[in-house]
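Fold these two proteins, one after the other.
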Amino acid sequence: MKTKITLLALALLSITTAFGQKKTNGNVYIEHPAINVVDEFVKASVAGDSLKMASYITEDFKAYWGTTNVPDTKGLDKAAFIRNQLLYFNALDYYSVTPFPDSYPDAIEYKKDNKDQEVWVQTWVELNGVHKRTGVKIDASAHRLYKLTEDNKINTIINYANGTVLDEIRASFVDRKNGTIYNHHDNINTIRKMIYAMEKGDMEKAYSFYEEDATFGDLSSFKNRGISLADQKVQDKAFLEKFDLVTIEMSGYPDYLEYEMDDSRAVLSWWNFHLVRKSDKMAIVLPVFFIDDFNKDGKIIRESAYYNERLLEQPFKVASN
């Protein structure tokens, strides 16, 4: 028994030792001449200084995209990479490259397989700007690896970034339709029936046009956004205890938008709510703009309302001279 316990203890010790071993493979620096070179190179690229950029790069330089799905990619040579970087300078207003919040670059000197004494610098940055032609705002994060020679020349760059942030720019160079606008549609009919049921005090019928899990947003108040149908019913009841709803008139005409992207659909409608405040019999006209999102079954799944809440609190006064 003692022998078995001893063997078990030795086995556990060997496993612990195997998993607990550490072996260094160089040094990591928070300050290093290579970091300074990378910083100056980035400043030159933001300034569009191609000659200064070239001075930091070796003649056999290569740049790669770490997220590419192209096997055996050849990367970009020195001239092609500089042209690529100048695209950002020439195409963007307010162009900047800044450290990602709470990050800092590292310089790594590996021992193994590093006979040429090369240094890797890794950075985490935010690229910002507004595309001059399309107005698309870029606010993108990127991770870059720079390999520098012993004399602090950049020999390789591997860039990791989300290339989809540029898709909106590419798509914005041409006009593109995104669905159809209707001025007559069954979903518009639904909105009219819902509004006029509310006008007649038939709240049960008005609520029947919503899905049970519909959400509501009162965009005049941060407190009432994304609330449930049950909560909206409570708010409607409280509102009608303070105001008499005399009539509701349509302003202009509703639009029904059936979007191609995201397969979404919404009715935009404008109304004037004629109210009487019960506390002082003050007549109030409240303009309201609704955006109602529909599902494929013709039920309202989300509603956003825009109006001036102050009109409910005090009468409109004409300024005196």
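Now the second one:
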Amino acid sequence: MGGDGRYVLNGNWAVSPPGTYEAAGTRVVYTRATGREETLSAAGPTSQDLLLQVLLQEPNPGIEFEFWLPQELYSPFQAQARALGWPLWQPQPREVAPRPPEPPAAPTVILHQTPTPTSDPCPPCPDTRGRAHRLLHYCGSDFVFRARVRGRLRQAQETRYEVHVQLIYKNRSPLRALEYVWAPSRCPCPVLALHREYLLAARRLISPDGTQDRLLLPHAGYARPWSPAEDSRVRLAAQHCPV
């Protein structure tokens, strides 16, 4: 087949007789003996690509080919082939098992995924470190205690923490071992991590009808990870603000 897509010989299920054919700017000599061997040869040079197609109805008897390059192109090609480890003569194997027919391709199903809306990130919390901030919340709070966070539930406009009270520094009413602490925002400041221990300063909030009695953790209030150093600071604050 020439570069224009037309068969030069043996195309369209028709067998061409042996002879000389014009193709790609040169003459192609086609020979076919009474046996299974056929040959194609052309002196060249060729002016366009030639495509060789082989139709097999039996095991492949083998295909061998060779070609020549112009002298000015042969040396660069030979150097490149040797650098890549290519042999300059590549015989085809004599026996090649016929390939089984490929199964029909399964229909392609395109799934359209609906992008999941992402919630806006919470704004950063203000800096609440320092002795003045600790004294302000210790003196103004109803409860100061050490607790371990067991659970967290975000609701419409508030966050509820379930905490295990471990040590009480200040309380104006009894505290149970397990309490709920409420933060008035879906983005509380600071955010309490699960299974961590904190020192918390909370206020008691009773609804006007008396049906709700909550421990409220104010926004940007006192909620610091527990440590021996923070324990000492809270005990020192208690001396300046006695119950």
